[in-house]
Specification:
Helix 5 links the parallel strand 7 (125-128) and strand 8. The N and C termini lie close together (11 Å). Helices cover 43% and strands 16% of the residues. The protein folds into 2 domains: 2-192 and 374-407, Glycogen Phosphorylase B (Rossmann fold, 3-Layer(aba) Sandwich); 201-369, Glycogen Phosphorylase B (Rossmann fold), CATH 3.40.50.2000. A 7-stranded parallel sheet has the order 3-2-1-6-7-8-9, sandwiched between helices. The chain has a 6-stranded parallel sheet with strand order 12-11-10-13-14-15, sandwiched between helices. The protein has a two-stranded antiparallel sheet with strand order 4-5. With 410 residues, it is α/β, with parallel strands linked by helices. It has 14 helices and 15 strands.
Length: 410
Amino acid sequence: MAGSEERLLSHQDNLRIAIFSDSLLPVLNGVSISIDTLVKALRDRGHSVHLFGPGHPGAPEEDPNVHRFRSVQTPWTKGYPIAIPPFYDELQRFRKHRFDLIHTHTPWVVGFVGLRWAESHEIPIVSTYHTLYDRYAHYFPILPRRYIRFRIAKQTNFYYNNVAHVITPTDASLKWLRRHSVKTPATVIPTAGAAPVPIDRSEARLALDLRPNQRVLLYVGRLAKEKNLQTLIKATAFALRKDPSLRLLVVGDGPFREDLRTYARSLGIGDKVRFVGFVPRNQVDRFYAAADLFVFPSFTETQGLVIEEAMNYGLPTVAIVGGGASEAIDPGVNGLVVRNSAEEFADAIGLYFSDDDLQKRLTFAASQSGRRFSVDDMCDRVLGVYHSVLADHDREQLSTSAPAERTGFR
């Protein structure tokens, strides 16, 4: 019993945390960015954080606390390596560190490894639900989409009902979990966008070869079918009819890139849309600094972290209602929200650029919105969940050990 009490007291100090995810940098998406932001904040507070994820050919080996499983890539998951067993070597490394808590960020291969190791080592486990996974059924073209969505829902239900606590970034994603009968205690904690880097707007535009008279729309994210990017390309074509000074910068890469390039050319705007491709995380800031308006057509996100990042640079957003991304926008205050219609999207773009007063109001409010929830706030709330889960775990350990102590058994 004394050992458990000492362990409980130790949780008030620095923690040893193992993070498991099927998506880690250099894969660039909302999950990997969220993890990177959290890990840096936790380490700044003095906590020891180790990451477990799939091997990646472009992964730097600078961080000794990153542990990579063997992995493969499939035709359906290009750019997203999948971990494959055996995991014996990683298990030995895991056991050496005697972690206080496990935090998983995906419910797939690596996430399941984290769940099983938590169970077998009696370590409390927290998981973040980042993504509306049933919207990704098209990545399994061999099987009927309805069946895939059913299996994803069953997997989600099983996984998140077997962890101690769920963190999710928006009310929309929490409602989705509850609709799928996930009963686990849950806390809504938005992922905070990274603090803006001081960048001169004129220099950023010059570096990106943008002329002063051009009005720049910016999209940052993965180029995939579920991101609804064809609606954005079509909306840009409509908007260009009224305002030829518009340009669209598409920052990111993915399996849908060539399809989108072809679609832009078919609409006659191939020279007005620049597909920048993959940009390292630390170089995306200059695109935010150079742009005039952020555009986000996806309604499959749980949060839409890039909207928060854009607001940090005073960029209002035009977004499509649905999912969790549009929750970051107060319509008519720091951005505009429209239905899933290219015509309505184009009208919103046109309205923004034709109304100087609206531009000023939305830009000011966006810059203020980006400061509402800081990385420190996010870290404080995540640590609050950790300590609550650890305290519950220790109380459970004490209660199960009490009978044995009273009878003299060990």
